[in-house]
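Hey, resending since the last one bounced:
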Amino acid sequence: MRQKTIKQRLLAYYMILFFLSTTIAVYINIGTGKTLKIYSDFTNQYSGLNLFYKDVAVMDGYAQMYLYNSDEEYLELYQQALTRCYEDLSGLQDTALNDKLVWKYTRLQNMVDTYSEVFEKIGIRRENFQENYGFYSRIAENIKNTYMEYSTLISDEMNVSSQRMHIQLEEQVGTTVIFVVAMMIGTLLFAYYSAKNITVPIGKIVSSIERIQKGNYDLNLPEKVKTVEVEILKDAVQEMADEVQNSIRHVQEKSQLENQLLEKENENLKVKELLIETELKVLQGQMNPHFLFNTLSLISKMAYLEGAVKTSELMETTSDLLRYSLDKSNGVSDLYSEIDSV
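The structure tokens again:
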């Protein structure tokens, strides 16, 4: 199995952690977004409903003003307020929380349509004003009286949605807890892996380096490693230890050779000293016989001068015999010389 680098393992861990974190964040944001949307819809419903009834009151006020004095300005203001009422109803229908509210808003729109039709009949065309005015007044009053009904419907729906959101929130919390526990387990597993396959082997390598520094080459290197960097570090420490041991062995061998050379040099010096002493002794040995021969020659000449010829010849013969014996002491003599000496 191919070993992975520490960088690759860390990258894989961070990618998994990033994926889990992103998943949690997206999940929470989606849930929060849904909750905010529901609350926003409720807020829009209340705001739109209040705005509608406010515009209805304004519309009815301008309509009443127009009916009393027939001023075209009030008619124009009434039509503008009517348009706003329709826009309010359209917005309420678009943001309705369920089909029941859509149907209820359609009823409101029908009531506004009826109010507009009756106003046009009695206000603009002036048809049966006295007969239809009472009906017209009741329409406006009925529209205004529906406020509590629609507010209660929205409140009831909000309570139902709140219960549903509470359940969703519990599910969201449970799912988030599961993701967090998974992240914690993954982190613990990665920490265990790091301690087993990175921290512990590196600790053994550091311990081996300390042993090398103390001169102990009995290393405690990890046998199996699962990361490329630790494997390279382990091999480098082993090679360093081997090179240091080889260097020490070479130094020791070189030191032994140098000691042997010194011993040889000492022996040679002793031999030279012996040779010098021998030469001195030889010179001394040579000096003593020469002194003796010179002395014998001097005695022989003194005897000759005093007329002792026999004594002089005997001294010469003795000197020659001694000289011959000294010259032939370290060599081989021939037969003629031996006979002559005899």
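The longest helix spans residues 228-305.

Sorry for the duplicate.
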